């Protein structure tokens, strides 16, 4: 998998130890370690989050939430192949896991080559269908994944359609408060004129 660049989002969250969250002790469950990992990840302490997620997986190897969370952190650290492996491991055991499917779709769409981007679009479409069955209401983040994948593959009408759907569902204020979707929307809508030529 090729890297399109690693942009880290600056986190403004309290350090876990300062908020009373301590690393899980010897009697901690897999869920406890996962919660600690989420706290570290939210604080931008990715190496500590990785350790916590891995401890969770030692205790409960089939913990799909911890494995998906591990993939998320590995992706943030630009270990795309390892992140992809985590998501695919989850999907091999739970083919309809929406979190792993969506995150794999996003990873493939944003960092992959043309073949991987195509695969990511297929995963995003499947995830969108499953999400609609499980919980009515289209998810703007899935539409954004479809929009960005189509943009990368220079499919202007599909990219624009999905970007506008995501924007309409979010509404102007919420759209502008979501830097990723807002940035994609502005890029896709902004180049509409060039595509029309």
What does this structure look like?
The chain has 197 residues and is an all-alpha fold. It folds into 2 domains: 11-95, Tetratricopeptide repeat domain (Serine Threonine Protein Phosphatase 5, Tetratricopeptide repeat); 98-197, Serine Threonine Protein Phosphatase 5, Tetratricopeptide repeat, CATH 1.25.40. 71% of the residues lie in helices and 0% in strands. The protein has 11 helices and no strands. It is elongated and about 55 Å long. Mean pLDDT is 85; it is low at 7-20 and 193-197.
Output the CATH topology of the largest domain. Answer: Serine Threonine Protein Phosphatase 5, Tetratricopeptide repeat
Radius of gyration over C-alpha positions, nearest whole angstrom:
18 Å
* H/I helix tally: 11
CATH architecture classification name of the largest domain: Alpha Horseshoe
Q: How far apart are the termini?
A: 32 Å
Characterize the main sheet. Answer: none
* Approximate helicity band: over 70%
Structural class: mainly alpha
Unreliable sequence segments: 7-20, 193-197
Total tally of structural domains: 2
Going by CATH, what is the homologous superfamily of the largest domain? Tetratricopeptide repeat domain
CATH C-level class of the largest domain = Mainly Alpha
Strand residue percentage = under 5%
How many strands appear in the DSSP assignment? Answer: 0
Compute the average pLDDT. Answer: 85
Give the SSE order as H and E letters.
Answer: HHHHHHHHHHH
């Amino acid at each position: 998998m090729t890297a399109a660049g690693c942009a880290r989002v600056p986190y403004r969250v309290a350090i876990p130890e300062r908020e009373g969250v301590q690393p899980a002790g010897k009697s901690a469950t897999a869920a406890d370690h996962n919660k600690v990992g989420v706290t570290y990840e939210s604080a931008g302490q990715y190496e500590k989050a990785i350790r916590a997620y891995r401890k969770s997986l030692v205790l409960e190897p089939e913990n799909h939430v911890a494995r998906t969370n591990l993939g998320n952190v590995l992706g943030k650290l630009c270990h795309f192949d390892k992140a992809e492996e985590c998501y695919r491991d989850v999907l091999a055991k739970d083919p309809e896991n929406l979190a792993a499917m969506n995150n794999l779709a996003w990873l493939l769409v944003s960092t992959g080559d043309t073949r991987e981007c195509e695969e990511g679009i297929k995963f995003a479409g499947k995830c969108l269908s499953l999400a609609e069955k499980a919980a009515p209401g289209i998810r703007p983040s899935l539409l954004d994944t479809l929009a960005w994948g189509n943009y990368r593959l220079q499919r202007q009408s599909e990219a624009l359609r999905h970007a506008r759907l995501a924007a309409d569902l979010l509404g102007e204020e919420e759209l502008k408060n979501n830097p990723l979707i807002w940035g994609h929307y502005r890029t896709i809508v902004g180049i509409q004129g060039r595509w029309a030529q």
